[in-house]
Write a structure and sequence with these properties.
Number of domains: 2
Radius of gyration: 21 Å
Order of helices and strands: HEHHEEEHEHEHEHEHEEEHE
Strand content: 5-15%
Shape: globular
CATH architecture of the largest domain: 3-Layer(aba) Sandwich
Largest sheet: 6 strands, parallel
CATH superfamily of the largest domain: Isochorismatase-like
Distance between the termini: 5 Å
Amino acid sequence: MNKSLPMPEFWSHDRAMKLFQVPYQKRFQEAKDWSKQHNILPSIKDKDRICLFIIDMQNSFCSPVGELSVNGAIGDVKRTCDFIYSNLNIITDIIVTLDTHTSMQIFHQPFWIDQDGNNPELMTTISLSDIVNKKWIVNPEVAMNFNINYDNLQEYATHYVKKLHEDNKYELCIWPFHAMLSSIGNALIPSIEEACFFHSVVRNSQTNFEVKGGNPLTENYSVLRPEVLIDHNNNLIAQKNVRLIEKLLGYDMLFICGEAKSHCVAWTIEDLLDEIGRKDVKLTDNIYLLEDCTSPVVIPNIVDFTQQANNSFKKFESFGMHIVKSTEGW
């Protein structure tokens, strides 16, 4: 069990919901002083390699003004920062994912129209029957963005929605524009960015950033692979992140948190579980899910994915992963 470190003076919970510029040079010196004050060794000397894997703790999902602000995210951010500062001396690496999008993607409004030329409303789900019955068709005006002729793109879209159905994935959802490339929403929420930077200097351990979601023709909830890999002509449209999979499974302990529990967190863990099944089922014993540092997508009177999220975590636990709180000892 790790003896928790005190919180740095600059950190307070009211900082979690604020948008601010991290004072890097000031934090750099404070981090150097902190490591000396608490006799914290560089991560290269760690006997047990421990990783904190933070999924999509970006402004779009965590800030109260984010386009897809997750109810409960601010509390998750507070506890995640507490976890980082309390365990600076044993967290070897921090890996963060950045959901990253552009306007012309299959899950955004411009991609689809109805027979009258209207785009779907936000949070519309598009089923296989919707495609077959031509309730929704690909907008011919966007085809040029993908270097695919219109008929071929429509055929691909039909295949895509069918594949989601066959693989028991979520139906295609029309999401609000979020985590847009180069936007404020795309950035980590500042308190998480600050904690990662502080850890990086204290432990001499570079924060690893993994960008996902940029393929315009598939969703990418999981950072380990997009929702659909093969197109209607049996050609590869995207690949698994084999490098990251191998890195994650190489740690002695892997702690996972982030947003949202029902989507990007759950599907990343699902894919990790699938890879563990291929490699060594005993590796599930190395996985710790910080249940108090993640929350599901809930939009009042529209969608509530709480049950799906809870069911996923029960499944992960049944396969040997540990469901823990950030304040527990291990």
